[in-house]
Specification:
Helix content is about 30%, strand content about 25%. The chain is an alpha+beta fold.
Length: about 260
């Protein structure tokens, strides 16, 4: 196993892997060997090779990443699901001394990403926003964006609107995944703004409507653009109001087992 990585209380680590570029046969075999029986059965049931490969890489990648923070082999991780279906890990007391290693996984065509932190809610979403067939319609825009977001969105030039929409989409998905409540929350009551005054550039601020029941200043958001076709957003709960440092790491260059 690789040497354990330090992950301080004020950090969130964002890992990503370009799944189409991962061709190391030995590493793919290690991924397959690390899957649990249920994951292996799901992997084998895929009828399309692209989906099958994406599943293997994303889940093997997740297990390898988690093993950078605790003395547990990739094959040794066990997962439980919350009431809303979010996977979580439970570390034995002798490994983490009562702490919770929190994570969230996302994958899209060509990329998988994972956010990790100790003892805080964290969520991540990635989208291949240039994928063929991803044209967005007015109905989807109205369902997803708040009135304030819709007003900002309409100031964008037509040729950048699709990318702008996925800025909102990934941020909202990351927040919902961090909360672990899925689409039970009204997404139109989540409003993201860009304090810089330039739509979709710079830092991000959030406000909530009454249906969200959350405190905006306890959340921090970050975005990453690993390729010209992928957008990644991370949502993380602040503890004590302190700003967090987001460390971006690419797999496998920094995580070879």
């Amino acid at each position: 196993m690789a040497e354990l990585l330090p992950l301080s209380h004020d950090e969130v680590h964002l890992w990503y892997v370009l799944t189409d570029d991962l061709t190391d046969a030995a590493l793919l075999e290690q991924f397959q060997a690390s899957l649990c029986d249920d994951e292996r059965q799901r992997w084998r049931r895929f009828s399309f090779e692209e989906g099958k490969r994406r599943y293997l890489v994303s889940h093997g990648f997740l297990r390898a990443v988690l093993s950078r923070y605790a003395d547990v082999p990739p094959s040794g991780w066990g997962f439980v699901r919350s009431a809303f279906g979010r996977p979580e890990v439970r570390l034995p007391p002798n490994v983490a001394a009562g702490r919770s290693l929190c994570f969230n996984l996302t994958h899209t065509r060509g990329l998988a990403a994972c956010a990790t932190a100790w003892d805080r809610e964290v969520g991540v979403d990635a989208e291949d926003w240039q994928r063929q067939g991803r044209d967005i319609g007015d109905g989807l825009i109205r369902r997803c964006l708040s009135p304030a977001e819709l007003e900002c969105f309409r100031t964008l030039a037509p040729d950048v609107r699709q990318g702008g929409f996925f800025d909102y989409w990934t941020l909202k998905e990351a927040y919902l995944k961090a909360r672990g409540l899925g689409l039970s929350l009204p997404v139109e009551e989540i409003t993201f703004r860009w304090p810089s005054g330039v739509p979709h550039e710079g830092d991000v601020a959030v406000s909530f409507g009454p249906g969200i029941d959350d405190v905006p200043h306890t959340w921090q958001f970050a975005r990453h653009v690993p390729t010209d076709r992928h957008k990644v957003a991370v949502a993380m709960r602040r503890l004590g109001g302190l700003d967090l440092v987001v460390v971006v790491r690419e797999f496998p260059a920094e995580a070879a087992p």
